[in-house]
Amino acid sequence: MASPDLAAHLSSLLPSSHPQLRDQVLPKLLACIHDIANTLRTSPSVTQIGTANAFGDNQLNVDVLAEGCIRKTIASCPSIVTASSEEDPIEKASTPSSSPGDEKYTLAFDPLDGSSIIAPNWSVGTIIGIWDSTSALHQPPSTHQIAAILGVLGPRTTAIVALRLPGTQGTCFEIGYSAAGTMQVVRPNIKLTDPTALKTRYFSPANMRAAADEPKYLHLITRFVKEKYTLRYSGGLVPDVVHALVKGHGVYISPVTAQSEAKLRRLYELAPIALVVECAGGVALDSATGDRVLERCVRDTDERGGLICGNGDEVEQVRRALIEG
Amino acid sequence: MASPDLAAHLSSLLPSSHPQLRDQVLPKLLACIHDIANTLRTSPSVTQIGTANAFGDNQLNVDVLAEGCIRKTIASCPSIVTASSEEDPIEKASTPSSSPGDEKYTLAFDPLDGSSIIAPNWSVGTIIGIWDSTSALHQPPSTHQIAAILGVLGPRTTAIVALRLPGTQGTCFEIGYSAAGTMQVVRPNIKLTDPTALKTRYFSPANMRAAADEPKYLHLITRFVKEKYTLRYSGGLVPDVVHALVKGHGVYISPVTAQSEAKLRRLYELAPIALVVECAGGVALDSATGDRVLERCVRDTDERGGLICGNGDEVEQVRRALIEG
Questions:
Q1: Which chain A residue has the Cα nearest residue B244?
Q2: Which in A240, B223, B299, B302 has the greatest CB count within 10 A?
Q3: ipTM
């Protein structure tokens, strides 16, 4: 399924180790992003099927279809031995079971993130974390989550891939898709760097309602306005974070306050996003504690957290304002 | 190209008058939105071609391709006698010229609005105003701009159509496209209504940087935060306004302040957006004067203005805050 271009890039990153990750898991999951995009594209009338998923969200028919695309891909990769998703948040062994010589990976994924902005036809995303283990729970994310994919389902289909084997710096790249699904590496080396004084600076403040009860957050937003930052906030976690990755800088904030609890799922949202941001040279912190997101093991599939992520300088400014403030 | 569904809907709206508008101009322009979406979709690597358009924006290769799609459609509709666009802002007679019995329309269009968010793969739009005249300039927009199309180029392709013949209330509907381009009316009657106390309320504040120098705008934004409105601001005019249309309520604000001049082009952006919002039962005001956008003739293709639009109650609150404030 992969074009020589993607295959060549993956071979240069993984010349000898992890052959099943390189030749099957990553190319097949990336091909699956294109299938999900096609499924969404050919659903001209997006309807709510009237059921709620395990977290109580309204579930759209396209959520179920996207979940099906990824489950089908999992069934075709024997080295993916365990999987869970936001739609079905219980870790389960995959069938068919792996052979003794296989690598063993666990997938944790959110098949279609951004339900509230599907109806107005705004860009949404797919989030996948790949763990080098038979479970994603109670494992140190910084060493055991070795890859992540953010699929961007927009006017085009694109995907951001992060890969970091233990002991390496990690790498982050973007792929584009042709109409037929052929994959090309369009940005081989994504880097988040601190903007210079001349650059437009971007901020993406999630849950701005929380600022009504939290003066530190209100003060921070007012400061961004006064310093003439440009606002970009779609309300879709994937497009909002990918905006910074493609522009090369920016800061995304999902606060946790006394009146507003943590919203993002550690396993399906925070951990993969944090790996991508770190592999691009950025910083991803828990907005409640200021700790690195990837320092903390995930204990439960429904565990939540807050997030500050982006280029280092601006994340540090937000950390000081919200936590030391 | 039109499915019986779209054709039937247009026939019910225009049973006897304007046959060329009903049978050619609207169906062909709507089919063209699908062509533009395909063009954007199959440009995996979006590049800047290094030229600037007449307004000094950076022009992307996809802007040029989208302009070409619409110009080709114009050439196939003899009743479109004049056209100008943001890319080529001079009103020119179309070829082939019309026959004596033809209806006579002028098109004013922005082929691809939202250049700055194309690279991160966020939804963007196409804006088309259709004028029942041989020019769009120096004509009262409220009576002479009789139709408008907002194409939404996102994970799906959708379009909002507004139609208002002089003396009628006007109507606003949404169409969806199959993968092959077949068009279906998915929302036959879009209405903006004032939200009840229980509903989530949305605001979309453009150019928030202007609040740094304009206390009225900063105060308004702070009030929205304190009243726990939900922020949705992509920076793309079409997706931002369509968000309100699809949710049924919401307010979009593009301010004009002493330090920040008007940004939106009256001919290519303000007039078509205002027609769509009014046909959906909403209100579209000039944010500098508080006057109805469609009350004022467009004198020049580069003329700019500010905008407050959405459901009536919230537009009125913003008008009071920014103009009477």
A1: A120
A2: A240
A3: 0.94
